Amino acid sequence: MRSPIDAAILGHFVPATAGLANHAVEAAHGAFLKWRCVPAPLRGELVRCIGNKIRLRKTALARLITLEAGKICSEAEGEVQECIDICDFAVGLARQLHGLTIASERPKHRMMEQWQPLGAVGIITSFNFPMAVWAWNAMLGLVCGDAVVWKPSEKAPLCAIALQRLVEEAIDEMNDTIPAHVCQLILGEHEAGERIASHPLLPLISATGSSRMGRVVAQTVAARLGRVLLELGGNNALIVTPSANLDMALQAIVFAAVGTAGQRCTTLRRLIVHESLIDQFAERLVQGFDNVPIGHPSDDGVLLGPLIDADAYWAMQQALQAAEQQGGQRLTGGQRVEQGVPLNGFYVRPALIRVAGNLDIVREETFAPILYLMPYAELDDAIELNNAVSQGLSSAIFTDSVREAEAFLGPAGSDCGIANVNIGTSGAEIGAAFGGEKDTGGGREAGSDAWKNYMRRTTNTINYGSELTLAQGVRFTL
Ligand code: UN1
């Protein structure tokens, strides 16, 4: 594999054979059979230990993300922080995996639900968050009593190996309380992902990546009636209304559109601006985009590092061409940058394209810093534009009007899993549920009650009387 910074070869990995992958899944399943009986707060101790190790090595891990995914240092550190945060969250959660007690209609009966460990969980992650997305899934899975089988992106195996090493260290340090194979790593290309998706010993597959990949995984898992947790493509929009604080909006927009070189699933891709201010605001945006410092992602002050690879660059060029053919007007950006950046990396100027509405190309998620700018007249039209794409991950509105904000957040408002007011579309905290609707796949990861995905619910009815009473008044006595 190569670094996106300068295409330098970072190493070679041998993809796991089918036999090896199967062995890893079976080992994880075996570990699960023991792990599920370890009390949850003790399972939390392993996660605490992993979190402490990540905390101690925050800078080194962030450097690895920069090297392998091309993120600027601050965003790479932010991603490691996200891993630490979910560890802390999961440790607390280990004492809160609670179910309900429900009133029974029968005398001297009690109903309750319990949440039990589910099994070994398959986790498929993408290059753009090579550590955090694993952490969301694995740390919750571990406290829930599951084992974990991780198939990271073939573009970011070093990040995965580094985390796996830390996990193994933590397991060793906790001696024989932890089954050794509770966290497994399988390196490979998409065949490895397919193997995981079809494996009957993995009751849950959590997959992050493109909607195309998610569809294949979902169908494979559905064929064996398994469970999926999908976090797929986004096509996130932000509405700027006349009452918005434009300085704040501008900052939020540039971070959301350009951060991580436009390669977050939460990246801002569509900007819907009120017609009364779109021309003036477009000028400010062009200025903002043209002034984004581009370069080596480790250099101080750089905000825009490289795209992941040549394919990403060509996909961006094709999207720009399609946008222009479909009537879009390029206001700025899109060119490759070759001066003042490391050789052989794919560095680009962020592109701003004025469009009349959701052109065909605008409906597609292109993983690059391209922002489509479109006007609206009435808030209802803006919300309709926001919703009129197949993806439904993140969305935002900038407004000082309570009426507008609440309309956007209400039942006829944004149809996305994330709807924000006066902040951008990306950079969510881990405490809340993360995910989206429609082609985004419907899954919710990280905070809130996302842990329930990693457990099975049992409903228990207990009769503590000495008579057998049937529900619904049914009489059936011999
Ligand atoms: C992703 O791009 O797959 O909200 C995840 C954000 C980050 C996570 C992005 N916390 O932008």
TrEMBL record:
Keywords: NAD, Oxidoreductase. Pfam families: Aldedh. Its EC number is 1.2.1.3. InterPro entries: Ald_DH/histidinol_DH, Ald_DH_C, Ald_DH_CS_GLU, Ald_DH_N, Aldehyde_DH_dom, ALDH7A1-like. SUPFAM superfamilies: ALDH-like (SSF53720). The active site is at 231. It is an enzyme of class 1 (oxidoreductase). Residues 3-458 form the Aldehyde dehydrogenase domain. GO terms for molecular function: aldehyde dehydrogenase (NAD+) activity. Homotetramer. Belongs to the aldehyde dehydrogenase family. This is aldehyde dehydrogenase (NAD(+)). The lineage of its organism: Bacteria, Pseudomonadati, Pseudomonadota, Betaproteobacteria, Neisseriales.
